[in-house]
Amino acid sequence: MQGMEKIYADNEIIFREGDPSSSAFVIISGQVELLKNAPNGRIRLAMLSAGEIIGEMGIVDKSARSATARAVGPVTLDIIEREGFLASLKEQPDVALAVIGNLAERLRNSNEMAIRPKVANVNSVPSAKLATLSTAGKLSGNLPGAAGQMSLWDAILSLFKKSPTKRRLLDIRVARLAGDEDGSQTNLLVQALSNQPELRVKAYDEPLPVDNNDELTGAFFQTAMLTGRRWLAKNKADLLIWGDVNEVSTVIHLRFISLGGEADHPGGFLISDRLALPTNFDPDFGKLFYAVAIAAIVPRTEAQRHLTKPLLLPALEAAQQAEQQPPHELMPTDQITIQVCYGNVTALIGYYMGDPNWLRKAAQAYQSALETISRDEDPLGWANVQFHLCRIRQNLGERGGDAEILENATIEYKAILEIFTYGEFPREWATIQSRIGSALYRLDALNGETALLKDAIAAYQSALQVFTKVDAPLKWSEVKNNLGQALQVWGDLARNTEILERAVMACQEALQVRNRLETPMLWAATQNNVGSALFLLGRLTEDSEHLEGAAEAFGKALEIYQAYGAARLSRVTEGNMTKAENLLRARLARRVAKVYWEEEPAESQEESVKRRRDKIFRDEIENHVIQ
Hey, CA dihedral for 351, 418, 243, 235, is it positive or negative? Predict the structure, then answer.
């Protein structure tokens, strides 16, 4: 994507709000601020730096500029005209992904970025990189198709439908099916996906080198996963579909391996998930196959997640007939796989949209499948579906603060651990331990039972026996963060400095993986937890350095939350930072008074004041975590 460079002087206007859109800009050097007119004056929406793109929304959907761009100091921009920009989207999918990545967080909270009356001028908002920009009020960030308006996703996908090149936004590989002597069923799978404009699909000449006749143990799946990901990494592909044709050539058994790893959320596919289709299946089952393949891809980047999200609902709607009328030639155990995979797609839509109704619909599909599966006859199949159902129940229980749902989910998780054992399925075992820890932590918050909090800490520590910083960095950092949060609550209740210090250390270890550039919201959540632990530690020890560290950590988190338009999290974190600063100022004032008067207040009076103040802080200090 090449354009023409232009240099702007300090304070020079690059484009104005309301101007027609004819070009996009890549910042080569310097900084650009985006400003928005409001009833109380102009406000700053963002401060952007070298390497970022501005103005791309307008030339995709032909809308007028919805903000003013102004140079801050000398700025060099690469100007990309509309025709060249759209051509690069058609010919270079990597450019499209970069554009989506640039817009992903802006779209996430666009509905929250209404102009608030209290923001009076450009100095009212910190000059951090605000990711919600001039798209406010234009796009929802949910599924495409707003009435009377084409979304960015529609525009980009329509470009790819017209693209003369063979490159696509998602890359899927199909291993030759074991038992497919003439290759016809493997070719059928490729053909079923190849007519989708967003997909690039290729087949490998050989099957995945595992013995499909082997017993389905954890070692079998682990070998398949490691080999499959090596294949995907070599070709930079997103998903590997593999499996076999049964001995009488009537059924195709399919499994899925994503280069993005495992997804521990509602709808996330497990390595033990499978989809059964009749050989020579008709187009209706091709639609189901497409929906399942899209849902099985674990996005490797925020950009890819936002690209995949709008594909799911249309794919699910197209596949409904296949789910409602499973082929009679399939055995009941094979028909159940269609129901479970359909549930996965439904749950994933609910997870992406934050809609509990979709999650409940998925839960119904899983519950229906469990009515047919016998734990004694098919323990792995039972544990597989039960795990999917428990993740939804836990999600709904946490959303609604329902202790009974969380208690039942915890009991069911422990039953699943009888199948997903540490020795056979270590990663699944560790994932469930982490989930038990989170459920118990929430139950402690609801019921106030300290024993549950200690059990939660033990569950997190069990998960860390499997998840390591090297092998599973993101999951390791998530569990470390959650462990730190649980430790700080326990340390506060026990008024134990050692436990609080362990809480700080656990969160700081999580920050070895979570960073401001790649995982900004997770980084901010952990910074907030560091701040909370240091605040509690400083209040208990009266060490001003802890309070200073707390205020600093809260400030780092606040900067990200404000930048990403997270209004609620910003309010909570700003309140936490204010409490830390106020306590720090109060202690400094007492020290000055002590030196000035050369005498200390009566101990009993000071302790009485301290107890009253501590109670206020204990009642008011807030904490939160994003997983």
Answer: positive
